[in-house]
Amino acid sequence: MDIFKKCFDFTKVEEAKAAGFYFLFRRLESAQGTEVIVNGRRLIMAGSNNYLGLTDHPRVKEAAIKAIEKYGTGCAGSRFLNGNLDIIEELEAKLAAFFRQEAALVFATGYQTNLGTISALIGRGDVAILDKYDHASIIDGCRLSYGQVKRFRHNDMADLERVLKDTPPEAGKLIIVDGLFSMEGDIAPLPEIIALARKYDARVMVDDAHAIGVLGEEGRGTAEHFHVEGEVDLIMGTYSKTLATIGGFIAGPERVINYVKHFARSLIFSAAIAPPLAAAASAALDVILEEPELRERLWKNTRKMLKGFKELGFDTGESCTPVIPIIIGDQWKTFQMCGLLQEYGVFVNPVVPPATPPGRELLRTSFMATHTEEQLDRVLEAFERAGKELGII
């Protein structure tokens, strides 16, 4: 059989386009701001992870430009051999200090961070214990490991304890959870997870990709939010959300980070992060600390939108963060509403299986510190109009 047969038989994209329900790979013709241009039309961006609006911050852009002037555009090799620039090591020291950890390790992407860290740590006889709503990169990191994978129901501590009880006590155990869940907008109950981890001799790793700069008094994420800093064993994060660029890191005990540094295949066999990206992430960390008013505006906007959606009658699930799902529960209505919203000038993301369980199809909205009151009002007006047209509200 021709190995390409499955490619020729794959017609879902053409069918979705013909029906007007294809909203993937939309071509953006502008910067990732509160408004974007899609196919020549200006839309309010209500689906970005640019929570503090730092992709267009002058300090962040200036840092990237200066790094290009000094180092050029790339490292031309793996950090393991010839791409380990001083600017990357300086970023690692800054990340470790920011998250109050002994050490940090920088990867070229957040996806590579989870692949490399998890596959390095979970060996034969070890068990990775995941929330069922964990990000795909966590799942893929487990697939690359030689250990066993167990999953517990989303944010269900009784089910987590059941899984821990059923795991052999002699096995090495790593509980891995998202801090802020990227589709649901809810938060992992870290204090309870940590208590169970200590009870059953497990370690805890938190993927804080969507929580950095968002949660916590100073934007340090989920652990700071719950006042359990120092009790989480590993903190993972990306730069592609609040930190306004591309890359990732893992932070934790120095000996553990050193081990990952020498065994993470996605680090060893990938080129190092480009200098302007490292510089941009470093500058974004500075802005998070020095401009807390951005986070205050983000939460003001979040409260407005949560209240507005609920008053209109939309189901926002358990969200309590800038990620606000509009749960529709029907795949075609989800696509229809996404299309109507785009027609009415709003960019949102449709989420359907396998990215969410069947019957929980939703529109993922997310908001920024830099959204204006007028923009947010227009988003709510568009949702009200589309929701009533489709009989959702």
Record the SSE blueprint.
Blueprint: H1 5-9, H2 12-19, E1 35-38, E2 41-45, H3 58-71, H4 86-98, E3 103-107, H5 110-121, E4 127-131, H6 136-143, E5 148-152, H7 157-165, E6 173-178, H8 190-199, E7 203-207, H9 222-225, E8 234-238, E9 248-252, H10 254-263, H11 265-268, H12 275-290, H13 292-312, E10 323-327, H14 331-343, E11 346-347, E12 349-351, E13 362-366, H15 373-389
Parallel strand pairs: 2-11, 4-5, 4-6, 6-7, 7-8
Antiparallel strand pairs: 1-2, 3-9, 8-9, 10-13, 12-13
Helix pairs in contact: 3-12, 4-12, 5-6, 7-8, 13-15
Structural features, described:
By secondary structure, the chain is an alpha/beta fold. The chain folds into 2 domains: 5-55 and 292-389, Aspartate Aminotransferase, domain 1; 57-290, 3-Layer(aba) Sandwich (Aspartate Aminotransferase, domain 2). Helix content is 42%, strand content 15%. The chain is built from 15 helices and 13 strands. It has helices at residues 5-9, 12-19, 58-71, 86-98, 110-121, 136-143, 157-165, 190-199, 222-225, 254-263, 265-268, 275-290, 292-312, 331-343, 373-389, and strands at residues 35-38, 41-45, 103-107, 127-131, 148-152, 173-178, 203-207, 234-238, 248-252, 323-327, 346-347, 349-351, 362-366. The strands form 3 sheets. A 7-stranded mixed β-sheet has the order 3-9-8-7-6-4-5, sandwiched between helices. α13 runs parallel beside α15. The longest helix has 21 residues, at 292-312. It is globular. The relative contact order is 0.16.
